[in-house]
Write a structure and sequence with these properties.
Length: 181
């Protein structure tokens, strides 16, 4: 699938078939994530591929009941948790050199965007999850000190016709030379 087409046709998927996703396919999407750019190529991202039903169930319970992706985490054949090693992105030899310490969010987001686009090009669905208890998820996944869980996505074959939610038009979000209200 061509890149612009993948970008435009990817949609959040919240209902999945039980059809398993084979290891080779999972490796392809992780490979896409691996090639994302990162701060000084520090590659702070770490990915946990969860297939275990009871762990998926526990992860689903870290989402609020009102989160529309809760059952997707429970029921999709795979969940990928995107984690970050802290104090790498924006740091040099352990010292913060950037004017902020959370560049890891940016790096992990880039890797995750690669992952979801690759998944979409292979006919798989995903949905970024941000509204969850990241500390509880870290405890479930036995994440050590110095790392955190940034986001998760279910991964599987879509079992829904996704709705396309509209985007702002370019004149609403683009300015030239200086910001103008
Ligand atoms: C940082 C981030 C966090 C998100 N968190 C959630 C979430 O917790 N639950 C959910 O159902 N969707 C979540 N989404 C998905 C957005 O709602 C979705 O991407 C947006 O509505 C646009 O729809 P589309 O992905 O189908 O184009 C999140 C997306 C992003 C980028």
């Amino acid at each position: 699938m061509e890149v612009l087409e993948a970008i435009k046709t990817r949609r959040s998927i919240r209902q999945y078939k039980t059809t398993p996703v084979d290891d080779k396919t999972i490796e392809l999407v992780l490979e896409a994530a691996r090639w994302a750019p990162s701060w000084a190529n520090t590659q702070c991202w770490r990915f946990i591929v969860v297939r275990d039903t009871s762990i998926k169930d526990e992860l689903a319970n870290t989402l609020s009941a009102r989160n529309p992706a809760t059952e997707a985490v429970r029921n999709a054949p795979v969940v990928i948790a995107a984690c970050a090693q802290l104090e790498k992105s924006g740091y040099y030899h352990g010292e913060l050199i950037a004017d902020r310490s959370d560049w890891y969010m940016f790096d992990v987001a880039l890797a995750m965007q690669n992952l979801v686009l690759a998944a979409h090009s292979l006919g798989l669905g995903t949905v970024f999850i941000g509204l969850f208890d990241a500390q509880k998820a870290a405890s479930i996944l036995e994440i050590p000190e110095g790392l955190c869980v940034v986001s998760m996505t279910p991964l599987g074959y879509p079992d829904q016709e996704p709705i396309t939610v509209p985007r702002k038009e370019l004149p609403e979000i683009v300015y030239y030379d200086k910001y103008s209200a």
